[in-house]
Amino acid sequence: MRRFSSTIWRRTGLDRHISDTQTRQQPLKKRPATATVLFLFILSAAVFISASWINLSSFYVTNVTEKAIIISQENRRSAMRVEIPLNCSAGNMTQTCPVNYPTSFETEDRDPSLNSTCPDYFRWIHEDLRPFKSTGITRDMVERAMRTAHFRVVIVKGRVYVEKYKKSIQTRDVFTFRGILQLLRRYPGRLPDLEMMFDCDDRPVIRSRDYRGPNATAPPPLFRYCGDRWNLDIVFPDWSFWGWAEINIKPWNSILKELKEGNGRQKWMERGPYAYWKGNPLVAETRKDLLKCNVSGEQDWNARLFVQAQAIGKAASDFIQEELKMEYVYDYMFHLFNEYAKLLKLEAKVPEGAVEFCSETMACPANGIEKRLMMESLVKGSSITSPCTMPPPYDPRALGAFVKRKANSIKQVETWERRYWDSLDKQE
Ligand SMILES: *[C@@H]1O[C@H](CO)[C@@H](O)[C@H](O)[C@H]1NC(C)=O
Ligand SMILES: *[C@@H]1O[C@H](CO)[C@@H](O)[C@H](O)[C@H]1NC(C)=O
Ligand SMILES: *[C@@H]1O[C@H](CO)[C@@H](O)[C@H](O)[C@H]1NC(C)=O
Ligand SMILES: *[C@@H]1O[C@H](CO)[C@@H](O)[C@H](O)[C@H]1NC(C)=O
Ligand SMILES: *[C@@H]1O[C@H](CO)[C@@H](O)[C@H](O)[C@H]1NC(C)=O
Ligand SMILES: *[C@@H]1O[C@H](CO)[C@@H](O)[C@H](O)[C@H]1NC(C)=O
């Protein structure tokens, strides 16, 4: 299972793995996951736990009387940053979006000594879109993806419209729209017109075996947060990067800052070896089992397990800090959209009944933690650098080797588990 998430200890990690090995219903070999790699990092990592939550006084609050667009004087090298403050002054903002968004921005030349190639995991964009390369994406294909979709997103001339079909789990949908809107603020005028169907549930559903063979129909393009080698769903960053209101998870850019602070205090290699897990134990038996591994008066297996506490692990490898920084999450979406739009054989049309979304209609009427998260993750102006450069597709052999390596790591862990269970059997 491959998931693009900031909350790396989620299902892709430990408990999915455990439930797969115990029930044996799922094929064991899984598509290698960035998330799994990250999880292993966390598992083997020392984690400095701190319960500090948000410093309430530090929230960015826009002065709503400011001009909607200010061309900043802060002239960084050659480009000017277009600032896009939130304009909540226009009456009932749950209804209308301001008309005067910027439609272009300047970027400065990149420092030629810096590597501007996107991280390697961007190559999955090529893999995810490959099934549509030969046929392109027709309207019929998009409509067929509606079967399980929670909503359709339509982008026309830099504005975002959403047609909702059903309610998603928690606020996943809201924070996903949120992410798309921030992308538009970051790269105004640079997003193509498109229509996409989005499914907010975890499990991929577009089975590749249903679209094979000489008479097969073309698969429907469906975006979701997870993908694997058995399915053709297109992976999109999950909502957690913009905050997760229900369990008090802050936007990723805030968490990254804290991680940096944590890492500054103590070097990775100097930390104690603790495994850290936080989550909801009620959704699976295996998770309840997992909690038995917590430190207690009798045992300490260096595991620290929490039930949706507000604590957050303040540690991460350089990989997480560098290759998963927020700019890259936006660049991933940017390239995914642009490459997807190139395949579209339809003219994006705003459906009747679709609602226009903008940062104002979402953030101005919100309140409580949702508002806080939205203000915190607001992209306040356009980027002054262009998106990173897409790497070429994986070389099939390199990809094969990568898949094999990850499958072997999973097998290795399974062997350890089996040994553990065997040793228990012998004791009985
Ligand atoms: C907001 O901006 C206006 C105009 O620049 C200024 O007069 C006002 O004092 C500001 N308000 C606050 C709360 O900063
Ligand atoms: C804004 O519009 C919504 C929906 O029509 C309505 O429920 C709400 O009371 C309005 N708010 C204000 C401040 O007018
Ligand atoms: C805020 O948006 C409204 C509606 O588009 C517009 O009339 C108003 O001029 C904007 N305010 C500022 C300060 O630009
Ligand atoms: C630039 O970064 C990409 C992705 O991390 C890497 O594959 C490539 O080898 C790098 N190129 C140079 C010249 O360092
Ligand atoms: C494909 O369609 C052709 C013509 O309708 C038919 O003769 C053939 O049996 C079909 N093949 C498969 C695998 O369904
Ligand atoms: C696990 O142990 C830690 C440290 O004693 C404790 O703070 C935490 O609440 C425990 N977790 C659970 C689920 O009991």
TrEMBL record:
It comes from the Eukaryota. Coiled coil: none annotated. Pfam families: Glyco_transf_90. The chain crosses the membrane at residues 33-54. Keywords: Membrane, Transmembrane, Transmembrane helix. Residues 190-347 form the Glycosyl transferase CAP10 domain. InterPro entries: CAP10 (IPR006598), O-Glucosyltr/Glycosyltrsf_90 (IPR051091). This is Glycosyl transferase CAP10 domain-containing protein.
